[in-house]
Amino acid sequence: MISDRSDHGTPRVGQVKEVTSLTNPIIKDIRALAQKKHRDETRSFMAEGLKLVIDALDLGWKIKTLVYAKAAKGKPQVEQVAARAVAKGGLVLEVSEKVISTITRRDNPQMVVGIFEQRYQPLKDIRPKDGETYVALDRVRDPGNLGTIIRTADAAGASGVILIGETTDPFSLETVRATMGSVFAMPVARASVEEFIRWQKSVDVQVVATHLSGSVDYRTIDYRSKPVVLLMGNEQAGLPVELAREAGALARIPQSGRADSLNLAMATGIMLFEARRHLLSLDAR
């Protein structure tokens, strides 16, 4: 069932809907966001946790629906974020723990969930400036890797992430979870291989690619002369020839152990912090 309710806090009468049924159409629509097709059709995605919802609102993301569990009712921060959601034109739902567990597919769910409008940065609008670093990912498949890279790019002070080709969805629940909220702070762009190559030729950047046949130690590269684009290959196949040949430097991370490769997110983190080492300081925050 669904009904209006009122209380002595904010938002007021008629602004909060109480939902108790898993078959409610609104809940069914939210649950369908687990499917990429539905996320793409509605241009929506889910983020869990009060802090993430607050951060998203602070950064200007459009909220469509705010969902909170009955157990969170009356908490000042929840009431405040509900009022902000209403002010932004969002729907606010108060639900049972069973409903929110079903939405998030967790036994111990967060008490607050936000449904937001997806946002991509057009590649043509990215004009890198001195001191900026971008990460370009070719056909990244694993949502955990992508989420971790977005989070790491945020931590390193990168300016954006560019997804090349058929990649995993940056707005899947698994990816958003792995970003720990950085999905709201890190601009993400999409491009085909051809679009990326045209773009990188139109801007004055240094493209550094990691490659198994790379002959340059990543620590010896001068990352100061131009804005940097770190080009990272697919988890299994690495970079295709058409991308590798566009790089100004093919870099390699030296290894001495028995492992023959690094996890994509780990390798990207190593490259990012080396590329930005001259820009980072211990008192940056």
Distance from first to last alpha carbon: 48 Å
Q: What is the CATH class of the largest domain?
A: Alpha Beta
Q: Main sheet?
A: 7 strands, parallel
Derived from helix and strand composition plus strand pairing, the structural class reads alpha/beta
- Annotated CATH architecture of the largest domain: 3-Layer(aba) Sandwich
Total of DSSP H or I helical runs spanning 4+ residues: 10
Rg of Cα set = 21 Å
Q: Could you state the CATH homologous superfamily of the largest domain?
A: SPOUT methyltransferase, trefoil knot domain
Number of extended strands: 13
Taking all residues together, what is the mean pLDDT? 91
- The run of helices and strands is EEHHEHEHEHEEHEHEHEEEHEH
Q: Regions with pLDDT < 50 over 5+ consecutive residues? A: 1-9
Spatial strand sequence of the major β-sheet: 9-8-7-12-10-13-11
Q: Tell me the fraction of residues in β-strands, as a range.
A: 15-25%
Helix coverage percent: 25-40%
Number of domains: 2
Overall, the morphology is elongated
Structure description:
The chain is of the alpha/beta class. The protein folds into two domains: 13-115, Ribosomal protein L30/S12 (60s Ribosomal Protein L30, Chain: A, 2-Layer Sandwich); 121-274, SPOUT methyltransferase, trefoil knot domain (Alpha/beta knot, 3-Layer(aba) Sandwich). Helix content is 32%, strand content 21%. It contains ten helices and 13 strands. It has helices at residues 25-31, 36-42, 50-58, 76-87, 97-104, 143-156, 173-179, 193-202, 241-244, 264-275, and strands at residues 2-4, 16-19, 44-48, 63-69, 91-95, 112-117, 133-138, 160-164, 188-191, 206-210, 216-217, 228-232, 249-252. The strands form two sheets. Strands 9-8-7-12-10-13-11 form a seven-stranded parallel sheet. Helix 3 runs parallel beside helix 4 (76-87), helix 6 (143-156) packs parallel to helix 7 (173-179) and helix 6 (143-156) runs parallel beside helix 10 (264-275).
